[in-house]
Amino acid sequence: MERLTTAAARNIFYGGSIFFFVIFALLVGNSYMQARDIELNHPISADAARGKRVWEKKACFDCHTLFGEGARFAPELGKVWLKYGGDKDPASAEETFKAWFAAQPSRTEGRHQMPQLHLSDGDVHDMAEFLRWTALVDTQNWPPQPKK
Ligand code: HEC
What pTM was computed for the model? Predict the structure, then answer.
């Protein structure tokens, strides 16, 4: 039976460590380049930055996920801007948001309820800009959508 010598074990240890470190470094570099690409090509506007603060202040993540982060009580919102047709008609998508926020809670039997959050028109606009920005991010279909 062949025995693994100490030298061979050491070589496997160092070789393996270096090999996986190189892969790790390449992946970090790749993520960095992708993040940079988003930053340069989709700069975040002042309105969208304010919208993110509204997201935090009103704790939307207590119920919703954004890119899969948050609570799973309510729908994922990363691409909701596209669901409301914002890529084709931004003004009408913003109106839809406004009507949605105004109509909560819907009190529809059997559905989770979204509370009335008392967003000002400015908050709604900033939130729309923020969700417009998130919709641009290529998340490579993350999070996966449950099959209907
Ligand atoms: C207490 C929980 C809760 C909080 C906090 C909350 N939501 Fe909701 N939200 C819901 C629920 C539940 C639904 C789904 C309601 C339904 O389908 O009738 C919903 C639905 C939505 C929808 C429609 C989603 C779709 O796919 O059409 C949008 C947009 C939305 N919320 C935005 C927000 C934003 C922005 C905030 C923060 C300012 C927020 N929500 C805070 C519970 C919440």
Answer: 0.84
